[in-house]
Every structure is written in C-alpha cells, then in structure tokens.
C-alpha cells in the first residue's frame, strides 16, 4: 500500500513538473508573440501616420482649389455662396399624381418620362 | 539488527556457578546497548546536519548566482504586462476644429559619419557634396580628417537622399532614426502653428521642441506621454482659414499693401476661427529671424497678434458705446462737429466738413473725429480709461501665442484731456487687431467681455459685463448704418447684414510725426448685425486704391471691399443661414422621388 502511495505521488510530481514545464514554454511563446505583434502594431502605426500625413497633404486646401480650377469644365464647382441656401417653404409639394404613382410602384420604374422638365433637371 | 538479550541464560547460569553477581552482566549489556544506540543517533544526526548544510548551501548558491546574474546583465523591462500601458513617445498632432491635420510627425533619418570606420574619405566627401548641394567636399574632408570619432552631417534626409547615401557604400556613414514635424497645409495658419526644432539629441533619438506659436505655448502638453497621442484641437477652421487667406492675399496684392492681417472671431465663445497675417512663411522651412532692421518686415512677424497699430476711427465705436452706456447721450443726441478743433496746439480735423452738429449716430456713420473728440471730452478721461481697460485694450492679449504675452498695447504716456480726445478716434493708442476683435465682440455680443482663444472650446464665455444689453443693441444698430449709408458702403454683403466701423490712421514715422501718404486701414465688422455671430477685423498696411483719378487710401475703399469679399466667402462656410430670396430657377421638387 505504502509503495503504491509513494509511486503515485512520484508520478504526480512528474506529471506536475511536465505540466509546469509546458506552461512555462507556452507562456514564453505567448510573450514572444505579443512582442512581435506589438512591433507590428508599432510599424503599422508608423505607416498609418505616414498615410495620414500624406492624406492631409493631398487634401490641403491649396491643392484642392487648383484641382477644382483644373477640372472646372467637368465639375463646375464654385465657392459656396448665400445663393446656395433655400428655405423649407420654397420646396414645392410633390405633384399629387406623381406621388400617388410612386407610392403604388412595387418595383422601381423609371418615372422620368412623367416628370416635369424642371424637376428632371433637379433630379439629375 | 540482532538484538542481544540483557540476561543471556548461559552466562547467568555460569556466573551463578562461579558465585559472581549476574546483575553485573545485565548492567554490562545495558551499557553496550546504550552505546550502540548513542552511536546510531549521532550518525543519524550528523547525516541530517549534513543534509541541512547542503540545503542551505544550495539555497545560498542560488541566491548568490541570481544576484550575480542580475548585477551583470543589462536591465530589461518586464514584458509580460506591456500590453496594459501604451506610452507614446511621439509629439502629439495638432488638428483644426473639424479634426483635419495641421501638424503631424514623419519618420525620417539623420545622417552621421564615423571617420574611424571610413575606408575612402575623399570619395565619400566628394559624393556627399554631389548629393547635398549645400555641402562642400573639401570642408567635409577636413571634418573627416580632424580626428573626431563622430560627425553629424544632416538632421533630416528624404528617402531619395537616403538611398543615394546608401549607394556610396561607405561603412563609416550611418543613419539615426529621427522624427520630423510636418505641416501638410504649408503656409496656412503658419503664424498660429509656429514651428519646432530639435532639442537634446542622441544617435538614435532627438527631442522635438516647439519654438514658436502654439507649438511653443503647448510644448509640454504636446510632449506629455501620458496623453496617449491625443491631438491638440485648435479653434481654427481650415477651409475658412484658407478662404480668408486667399481673399486677403488677393486684396493685399491688388491694393499694393505691404502687409495685411485678418482675425475672425466667434463673439460668444471667443474662438478664433481664422487668424491670418501676411506676408507669411512656410513652417516646414521656417526662415531665420531678422538680425537687423525692423522685426515687422520679417514674414515671421505676426501682424494680427503681435503688431500694435493705431487703428483709427474703429475706436469711435467705443466712444459712442461709453456715451450711450453712461447715459450722457442717446443715439439721436446732437453733437458739436464745428471744426477744426484746437487743443493744446494740436488741431483735430475731419475728412469733410460735417456742419455745426450731427447726431451721435451720424458722428459714427460719417466718422467725425471732432464729434468723437467732443463726446470723449464730455465724458472725461477717467471714465474712458476705465471703459477701455474693461474691454481689455490695456493688457497683453490673453492668447495662447508666445508673442502675445510680450506685446503690450501702446498707451499715451500722460493721459491728459488731449489724449482723451485723440484716443476717442483711435489715435495715440495702439493695439493689435486681435485686441480690437475681442473688444468689438464684447460690444456686439450683448455686452459681456470675451477672451480670444485658439483652442476649441464650444462653451459660451460668461465674462464680466462691459455694457448693457440695450447699449449693445443700440451700438449694433448704429454700426449697421455705417454699412448701409456710411463710410463702409462697399461692405454690403447680400444675405448677411454686415455692421462695422472703418478706420484709417496715418502711420507714425520713426523719425517723429506721421507719414502723409502711408496709412493703416482697418475695417472692424460683425455679421449678421441683428444677431451677431462673428467679428471680422481686416487690417491693411499701406494700401492704395488707384482706380479713381486720385489714389484713395481710406479704409472704405481698401479694407472694406476686402472684408466684404471675405464675409461673402466664409459666411456660408460658417453655416450661417442667409436672409435672402433664392436665385430664380432654383427648384427643389421631386428630386427625392
């Protein structure tokens, strides 16, 4: 009986030692991985800051203005002015017939043929 | 172990036969047995002692060895808990009020040489001189041969330059990592941002230290590693700043002015949405300060927050506000304007003759120096001083720029009755345009003082009251008329009721007296007049308008049109709804269908 207990405890010690050894190495592995990840995060952060700087540089107002001037033919952008504001009361009520038609439509259908001319311009 | 009986029968019997005492045998045996037991105990105890000694020895050896290891190896940070606390060592970014980047960092490399490890010094020197035009080959060679072990060659390298230096293939040339400050928007807001330079540096690191602008003022804040890289958010609005700078620059060129400044300030929060001083500079390549001559000729000079100018008739609004606030006058009170007014050998004249008297409103609208002087004389020097003091015109600016702390307004040495009269129309007192902006904000925002700030706050300032709500409303009405029918008639902007006051002041001659044909022209404006949100100050240095038969220099022809154009451009950007009918042909119908 005693021999059995002795051998059992000896086996237990061996098993625990093996477990501790494994855990130790797993921990070290995890730490190495954390370190590598942190290095990667640092490198990515650095890259991100470079990209942010580049983005800010490409979006500087001076350059955007030059681009707007260059592409005036296609974009026709002009500075925002007081004329670009409107009052809610100036928004016309929708044409009742058209609104009813739009409500009944299950599948999207091109209504542009039914639209008045001015509205078509606005929709475009 | 064999146990010997204490009274062995054979020996007892033989002893009895011989007539000996058998107890002696027993005693002898007991002694022997005890000796045996003692020996055994000692042996066991010695063994235990030895074991104990071994145990202690092992423990001490372990402790000693660990101490030896700790003492001999380089210290290392524990890396098991490095995830919990992230400390950023980089300088924080500066962003505008919408989060757009105004200043950020870029990683770059510094170049140094270790002459001891160099193989071919002459070739290295020659090829370095080819890459960097500002280096001289013979000078480099002299440095390499001077016996020094370490020579800094360059603080910042572009990637192309780095590659070229690599291509030399010289092992004695090496790179150290560096961070450099980048201002992606170039000249925009240069005076606000300031600049940085390298502080203490080693081979593999260097401190970035702010040298001017908010970079200097918030230096410790930007360098604080505990803030985890949170950016500093300024009150500046990048698109607005860009628009203001562009219009002001155009106006300055057209009017052939030497310089210009514009300040756009929120009247409630005191936030400066735009602060422009022209000419400006590129903070990425900061010029050196002038060593001789006038500091204000340098582009580094901040005309908006550092330059003190006599801002002329813009001060009449303060005189009028004081007269209204003290109860001495109403907007329709008639003021003597008969001139010229002589006082202590000094003559106060008006631009035109405005007749014997004008109402207080018309004194401001037509900008009568004599009327303002008479008003101030009636109120007295003490009340005027106390009022201007309350508006913050006597103290250095409470602005987050290093130069503003050093810049004191220039006041009359002796505040006599004549000074009272000249200060009433803005002569004999010199303040910065930002001072003027803050004072005008206090006049029109309902009468409470605001302190200008460059940091985004969004909280309405509850400053001390300077004038009453009613006086503020009256002043707004009067200043609105300056634009609708007065000296600033070119300042009308469709949709935004602009109010304001012009000011044209002759520049003081350093030799004494004033120049006849050099002026500082200023327009202090606010909009919308019925419920002011922003104050805009535009100041031009020596402008001249030459479209007419005679060159015109008054603010109404120079600063006012520039300010009006600025308001036309930035008011929609600031999100102010115009009071306007929409342009014909604008229909908003059905577009959502």
Give structural notes:
The complex is a heterodimer of chains A (124) and B (593). With 124 residues, chain A is an all-alpha fold. Chain A has one domain (2-104). Chain A has 5 helices and no strands. Chain A has helices at residues 2-58, 61-70, 72-75, 96-104, 117-123. The radius of gyration of chain A is 36 Å and the shape is elongated. Chain A starts with a helix and ends with a helix. The model of chain A is unreliable at 118-124 (pLDDT under 50). The longest helix of chain B is centred in the first third of the chain and has 51 residues, at 22-72. In chain B, strands 1, 2, 3, 4 and 7 form a 5-stranded mixed beta sheet that branches. Chain B is elongated. Chain B has helices at 9-18, 22-72, 121-131, 137-144, 159-168, 190-193, 213-217, 219-223, 238-254, 316-325, 360-366, 369-379, 381-390, 402-406, 417-424, 433-444, 469-485, 559-573; strands at 94-95, 101-113, 151-157, 173-182, 195-201, 206-212, 232-233, 259-266, 272-278, 309-310, 334-336, 341-343, 346-348, 357-359, 430-431, 499-508, 514-527, 534-541. Chain B starts with 8 loop residues before the first helix and ends in a 20-residue tail after the last helix. In chain B, α3 (121-131) crosses α4 (137-144), α10 runs antiparallel to α17 (469-485) and α12 (369-379) crosses α15 (417-424). Chain B is an alpha+beta fold and 593 residues long. Chain B contains 18 helices and 18 strands. Chain B folds into 2 domains: 94-233, Alpha-Beta Complex (Penicillin-binding protein 2a (Domain 2)); 240-573, DD-peptidase/beta-lactamase superfamily (Beta-lactamase, 3-Layer(aba) Sandwich). Classes of the chains: A mainly alpha (124), B alpha+beta (593). At the A-B interface, α1, α2, α4 and α5 of A face β2, α9 and α18 of B.
């Amino acid at each position: 009986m005693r021999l059995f207990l002795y051998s059992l405890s000896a086996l237990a010690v061996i098993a625990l030692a093996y477990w501790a050894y494994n855990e130790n190495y797993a921990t070290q592995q995890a730490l190495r991985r954390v370190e590598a990840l942190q290095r990667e995060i640092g490198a990515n952060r650095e890259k991100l800051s470079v990209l942010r700087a580049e983005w800010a540089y490409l979006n500087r107002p001076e350059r955007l203005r030059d681009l707007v001037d260059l592409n005036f033919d296609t974009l026709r952008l002009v500075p925002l002015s007081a004329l670009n504001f409107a009052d809610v009361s100036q928004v016309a009520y929708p044409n009742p017939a058209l609104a009813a038609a739009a409500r009944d439509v299950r599948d999207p259908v091109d209504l542009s043929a039914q639209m008045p001319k001015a509205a078509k311009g606005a929709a475009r | 172990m064999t146990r010997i009986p204490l009274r062995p029968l054979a020996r007892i019997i033989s002893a009895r036969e011989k007539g000996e005492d058998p107890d002696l045998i027993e005693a002898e045996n007991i002694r022997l047995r005890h000796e045996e037991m003692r020996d055994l105990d000692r042996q066991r105890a010695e063994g235990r002692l030895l074991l104990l000694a071994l145990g202690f020895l092992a423990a001490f050896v372990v402790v000693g060895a660990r101490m030896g290891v700790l003492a001999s190896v380089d210290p290392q940070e524990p890396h098991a808990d490095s995830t919990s606390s992230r400390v950023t060592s980089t300088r924080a970014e500066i962003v505008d009020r919408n989060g757009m980047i105004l200043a950020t960092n870029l990683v770059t490399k510094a170049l140094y040489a270790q002459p001891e490890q160099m193989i071919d010094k002459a070739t290295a020197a020659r090829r370095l001189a080819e890459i960097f035009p500002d280096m001289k080959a013979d000078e480099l060679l002299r440095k390499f041969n001077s016996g020094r072990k370490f020579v800094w060659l360059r603080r910042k390298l572009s990637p192309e330059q780095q590659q070229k230096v690599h291509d030399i293939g010289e092992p004695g040339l090496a790179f150290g990592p560096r961070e450099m400050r980048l201002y992606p928007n170039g000249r925009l807001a240069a005076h606000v941002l300031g600049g940085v330079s390298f502080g203490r540096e080693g081979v593999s690191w260097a401190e970035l230290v702010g040298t001017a602008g908010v970079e200097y003022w918030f230096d410790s804040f930007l360098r604080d590693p505990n803030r985890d890289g949170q950016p500093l958010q300024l009150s500046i609005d990048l698109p607005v700043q860009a628009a203001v700078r562009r219009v002001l620059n155009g106006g300055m060129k057209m009017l052939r002015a030497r310089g210009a400044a514009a300040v756009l300030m929120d009247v409630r929060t005191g936030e400066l949405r735009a602060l422009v001083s022209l000419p400006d500079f590129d903070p990425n390549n900061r010029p050196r300060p002038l060593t001789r001559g006038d500091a204000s000729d340098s582009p580094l000079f901040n005309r908006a927050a550092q330059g003190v100018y006599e801002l002329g008739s813009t001060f009449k609004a303060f005189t009028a506000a004081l007269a209204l606030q003290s109860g001495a006058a109403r907007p329709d009170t008639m003021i003597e304007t008969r001139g010229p007014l002589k006082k202590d050998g000094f003559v106060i004249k008006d631009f035109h003759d405005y007749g014997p008297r004008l109402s207080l409103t018309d004194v401001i609208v037509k900008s009568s120096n004599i009327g303002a002087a008479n008003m101030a004389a009636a109120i007295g020097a003490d009340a005027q001083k106390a009022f201007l003091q309350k508006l913050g015109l006597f103290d250095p600016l409470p602005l987050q720029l290093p130069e503003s702390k050093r810049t004191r307004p220039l006041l009359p040495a002796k505040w006599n009755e004549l000074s009272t009269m000249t200060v009433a129309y803005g002569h004999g007192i010199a303040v910065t345009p930002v001072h003027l902006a803050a004072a005008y904000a206090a006049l029109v925002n309902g009468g409470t003082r605001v302190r200008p700030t460059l940091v985004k706050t969004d909280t309405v300032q509850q400053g001390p009251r300077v004038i009453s709500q009613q006086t503020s409303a009256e002043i707004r009405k009067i200043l609105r008329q300056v634009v609708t029918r007065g000296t600033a008639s070119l300042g009308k902007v469709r949709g935004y009721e602009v109010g304001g006051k012009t000011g044209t002041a002759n520049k003081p001659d350093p030799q004494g007296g004033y120049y006849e044909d050099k002026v500082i022209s200023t327009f202090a404006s606010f909009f919308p007049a019925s419920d002011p949100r922003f104050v805009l100050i535009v100041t031009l240095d020596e402008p001249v308008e030459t479209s007419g038969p005679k060159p015109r220099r008054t603010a109404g022809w120079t600063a006012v049109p520039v300010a009006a154009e600025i308001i036309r451009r930035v008011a929609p950007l600031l999100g102010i709804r115009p009071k306007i009918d929409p342009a014909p042909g604008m229909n908003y119908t059905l577009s959502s269908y």
